[in-house]
Design a protein that fits this description.
2 copies of one chain form a homodimer. With 414 residues, the first copy, chain A, is an alpha/beta fold. Helices cover 40% and strands 16% of the residues of chain A. In chain A, helix 1 packs antiparallel against helix 13. Chain A is globular and about 70 Å long.
Chain lengths: 414, 414
């Protein structure tokens, strides 16, 4: 383990701060050049075909979305269109509604979660802060589960889910996981599909946010969990969600839920009170532009071409500076939106130092339930947001911040 | 009161049924010629200006909507843009979220409605069935309040709201009310603005769905309730909502909430967990097309030109057949989407007879809480949906159905 000069690192950081630059890397946002990819979708939309088999996308109706949009997501997810509903904007809104419905009204014939006393969700972590925020919103207890390169620690998951009826859910980002970038192994997906939950209203929220978000031409393969559960007693156990937020326009795309017929019936029984219909004009525009899963993959290649250099820059800088440092580890994702960085014991300090030089990272701890990272290690890097020049600056700040924080830590430990 | 020949009416209805036509008049939908009015909005949208003051409508951000869309609805409602948030599609979704937020989390520092025992809403009726469905969804008791040509019976409203802390809300469609078409009088609006609710978390849901939906050039004037409450102790008492569903595309437009700063803060504290942002691309497209309240009024004139002949046909047919019948009364709305018909004691029978001849009306009773119309009188007519030819047929069926039902009733009573 190489040491760093505290004075040298301090000087570097001060020099970078003096440049007065400012870079916000808190969220996984597409950069504007990525948003331009889908601008053609917005032209000529007046001449699209909005009517279909008795329906008119410009009018009320079709709570579950237009048939063509359901078919598009069925193609992406690898399920039947009857098992898909397509709503507006973000999959986050769908996940929130799913939890809210179970909480307030109950699902699967069970009492509402709000009436079942203390209930819990399994939270593989590091994970997605907005998942955890939904649990906090509804007072759902969060049980952290460790993640490795194959996914959540399945021994723990199997044991807890089988033993405890108060465990009602598990958050999963199975492909290019947020933030670690890993893809769940076949064995992990099979073990999840074969869980024996004590609770009849236990649900796996399969947030397939990055299902088509490969950075390289040789896309990684994730087992289709519906192939494993349909026709088994676990048919109702999975809610899969996804959206076009990082395909077309972030937050202005379309989002989908795939689940069993029974689950969709449960869900739409409440959805029909809460909504007249999603924005179906936007759905027709999306289908016209994206066409099918293959069309989506073509669009995603354009995103990958813009994103790849940014991810590779992050990796190259970290590699150059910390290749031999046991206290600094990072992921080398082949897709998704994040690089997950572990700086043992100094994450909070590193984020604070970076901020002092103008670079804003997601608050340390955000990738853990209750913002509590037990080893104060994890930092989520979102390389998509800045330009390459800004990213270069941000990485220099990050490197100096890590070196300073580690030098201080080592000085204390001596 | 003129009598009708039972045999003659029966014969007429049978003859109409034999034509094998089918007309669905259950909902207040725009007709396709109205939807064509806004098609130009969908052209050239790729060249619009999506960036603004640091923001990009195509990217994440701006939970409360793009500034220009908030300004548009501020202009329509006559409030400050800071008091407006703009979300997706339908105002129904906003009203549902408002009720769900108060129910699950509580508002104004009060306990959640779900923890306050039995709570009630005042429901001026006949009213909007989807308002009542939200109350049913959350188990909120509904107290019917009579409506006349000036709005709800304010003596009753004032007395109940002041006396009973368990009354948490009141539904209002203050302009071209659904279904009666009346506009709340100045005195009614003033008395609502000056209510003295026992409950700190009592809210008036001011569903201004038809705020710009005049059928005639001389628009009716509704007092701006915010002019009356801002700066008073009732500043937080009103949620005003509206949408472009019947301006641009039904269910694919944009919808807005206007309320006090305190209420918006309460609401967005939860909304930020449930949503990343609304569809801001759609908001920019709407602002570009509609521009401001005056631009909206220009669009609405085109709608009025298409709707007016339909409303006038309904009135002419009813006038011709029932001008002197005490048991048949109907509204003569100057805006909105409905004609409210009262056929004393035979509404259910009339709707059933019409259906037997192929014309589907909203189920009798739907305009009352729990679908219970105490006098079985009210039928909601939605003239917008059919073509003029179809409407002519539907009205002939309606007339024959009324005459048959009344003839039978009178025969029973003799």
């Amino acid at each position: 383990m190489s040491g760093y000069s505290l004075e040298e690192a301090k000087k570097q950081l001060k020099g970078l701060a003096a440049l007065g630059k400012s870079v916000d890397m808190t969220r996984g946002r597409p950069f504007r050049d990525q948003l331009d990819i889908s601008l053609p979708m917005l032209d000529g939309a007046a001449s699209l075909q909005y009517t279909y088999d008795g329906g008119d996308a410009r009018n009320y109706g079709d709570l579950m979305g237009v048939p063509a949009a359901r078919a598009l997501f069925a193609d992406i997810f690898g399920v039947s269109p009857q098992n898909v509903l397509v709503l507006d904007g973000s999959s986050l809104a769908i996940m929130y509604k799913l939890v809210a419905t179970a909480y307030t009204f109950g699902i699967a014939g069970c009492a509402p979660w709000s009436k079942q006393g203390k209930i819990s969700f399994l939270c593989p972590c590091p994970g997605y802060d907005r998942h955890f925020a939904i649990c906090e919103e509804f007072g759902i207890n969060m049980i952290p589960v460790a993640m490795d390169e194959n996914g959540p620690d399945m021994d723990t998951v199997e044991r807890l889910v089988r033993a405890d009826e108060s465990i009602k859910g598990m958050w999963c980002v199975p492909k290019y996981s947020n933030p670690t970038g890993i893809v769940y192994s076949d064995e992990t997906v099979k073990r999840i599909a074969a869980l024996k939950p004590a609770a009849k209203d236990f649900r796996v929220i399969w947030d397939n946010a990055y299902i088509v978000h490969s950075l390289y031409d040789d896309d990684d393969r994730l087992l289709n969990i519906f192939d494993l559960i349909m026709g088994t007693p676990n048919e109702d156990m999975v809610y899969e969600v996804g959206s076009t937020s990082k395909i077309t326009f972030a937050g202005s795309g379309i989002a989908a839920l795939a689940s069993s017929a029974a689950n969709l019936k449960d869900f739409t029984a409440h959805l029909k009170i809460a909504l007249i219909n999603p924005n179906k004009v936007n759905q027709v525009m999306h289908v016209s532009f994206l066409k099918d899963a293959q069309g989506v993959r073509e669009v995603m290649k354009k995103h990958a071409a813009l994103l790849r250099p940014k991810f590779e820059l992050v990796d190259a800088v970290l590699e150059k500076n910390f290749a031999n440092d046991e206290d600094v580890k990072w992921s080398k994702p082949r897709g998704g939106y994040f690089v997950s960085l572990d700086v043992r014991g100094v994450a909070g300090q590193v984020v604070a130092y970076a901020l002092s030089a103008g670079v804003k990272f997601t608050a340390a701890g955000s990738t853990y339930p209750y913002h509590m990272d037990p080893s104060d290690s994890n930092i989520r890097i979102a390389p998509s947001v800045p330009t390459l020049d800004e990213l270069d600056f941000a990485m220099r700040v990050l490197v100096a911040s890590i070196k300073l924080a580690l030098a201080e830590k080592r000085a204390r430990e001596e």
